[in-house]
Amino acid sequence: MRICVFCGSAAGTKPRYAAAAAELGKLLAKRGITLVYGGASVGTMGIIADAALEAGGEVIGVIPTSMTDREIAHQGLTELHVVSTMHERKALMAELSDAFLALPGGAGTLDELFEIWTWYQIGVHSKPIGIANIDGFYDPLIAMVDHMVAEGFIRASYRDFITIETDLEKLVSGYQG
């Protein structure tokens, strides 16, 4: 089992975001789940990768050439794939993964989450998608998505396909059936 985690090249302002990334990395390793992520050594990306590796897990990073310096490519991973573009990064992360999960993050995290969700909606994949709503981080986004459903721009079934959970253990357990 491989889970792709979308998260940030920054750690955010609340210590709980970094703690959640570390907790998730350890949890994945403990469960024998390989982490697939953006390949950086900074922010919550670096935190989750380091935690998974320290707990004995496997970690696969995918990073575009243009980001290897800016995001500081993680050199201690099980595998590091360097690709040409962001599109190739997202496509390879999707190909390598059995499920997807978003931790709190910035525009890149939202881009990855929305693209993988769009791919589900148009039938490119049927892999599970989850959101770790740490300390209510995604509450405004969830309200916006609910508004989009109410206004007829998204089917309720597409919204319901995404699992939203505050408890990481429950979220990961849902992926393992």
UniProtKB/TrEMBL annotation:
Q: Which domain of life is it from?
A: Bacteria
- Indicate the enzyme's highest-level EC class: hydrolase
Enzymatic reactions: N(6)-(dimethylallyl)adenosine 5'-phosphate + H2O = N(6)-dimethylallyladenine + D-ribose 5-phosphate; 9-ribosyl-trans-zeatin 5'-phosphate + H2O = trans-zeatin + D-ribose 5-phosphate
Question: EC no.?
Answer: 3.2.2.n1
Q: Which UniProt keywords apply?
A: Cytokinin biosynthesis, Hydrolase
Q: Which Pfam families did the record assign?
A: Lysine_decarbox
User: Which InterPro entries does this chain map to?
Assistant: LOG, LOG_fam
Gene3D superfamilies reported in the protein's UniProt record: 3.40.50.450
Q: Which family does it belong to?
A: Belongs to the LOG family.
Instruction: Please state what the protein is called.
Output: Cytokinin riboside 5'-monophosphate phosphoribohydrolase
User: Which organism is this entry from?
Assistant: Kibdelosporangium philippinense
In the record, what lineage is assigned to the organism producing the protein? Bacteria, Bacillati, Actinomycetota, Actinomycetes, Pseudonocardiales
